[in-house]
Amino acid sequence: MSSSATYELALVRRRVRRQAARSVLGAVGRSLLTFVLTVALVLVIWWGVLAVFHVDPFVAKSPADVWEYLVTSPRAAEHRADVLDPLGTTLVDALIGFTAGLLAALVGATVFQLSKGVENALMPVAMLLRSVPLIAMAPVIIMIFGRGTAVVAVIGGIVVLFPALVTIAYGLKQAPPASTDLVHVYGGGSWSALRKVALPASLPSFFAAVRISVPGAITGALLAEWLATGTGIGHAVSEAKTQVQFSFLWSSVVVVTAVSLVLYNLVALLESIALARAGMKQTQV
Hints:
The protein contains 11 helices and no strands. The chain has helices at residues 3-53, 63-72, 76-114, 116-131, 134-145, 149-172, 177-185, 190-201, 203-229, 232-242, 246-278. By secondary structure, it is mostly helical. Helices cover 86% and strands 0% of the residues. The chain has one domain (3-278): MetI-like fold, CATH 1.10.3720. Helix 3 (76-114) crosses helix 11, helix 6 packs antiparallel against helix 9 (203-229) and helix 10 runs antiparallel to helix 11. It is flat.
């Protein structure tokens, strides 16, 4: 290769790196701005609802009350420990449900992509099960799986599974037909087309599934703790209500919501960076 061609190639690579860096910085900026605006909107709505409906201050706590409970009161350190200890259990439970649900969704979407007959047979069943309230199914799930880690994986996995399954399955169907046909022309089968074309093309939808699964996994963990295990924030909030510990209840809800928001935006940031580097657009859900 001549020196001029080498120089031109180096310029192209440098230009691509600069464009990727600008895309990453733009993604970071958008994620941070979205996070700040979301927090501000939540605080405004919170204050507004309490002011408009004149909720009894003994029951409803304002952002200032929660801040005092967790930060400025003489027993703030003790209060934070009371909230953060069960929160650790909830995050572990959420991780279990997230992993179980997302893996099941990925396997299910892959099977659907390989076999339209299986998709036509099982997708209506999945949607039917999704329409049944989880609380109604909880007694049966508890009788089958007990009250340990297995029930956390099942309940959390159910909450995560269906939205992720639909999102990933949709993404796999967006594979370019021309690329799929090219794989078949060169002797590749359905599995080769899935691996070489459909899975790479579904990357935006996969990230979208991960993004929506994060708060879903925390919701599933709270449900499992409330209905089955008797641990974590889900159980602690239920107990706080019966014991009239409203400051703890509101603080726990705020902390869980804040953690969900942070994790959601963290995943969205990683998604934006990965897709920007891959030259793909983010899927809106």
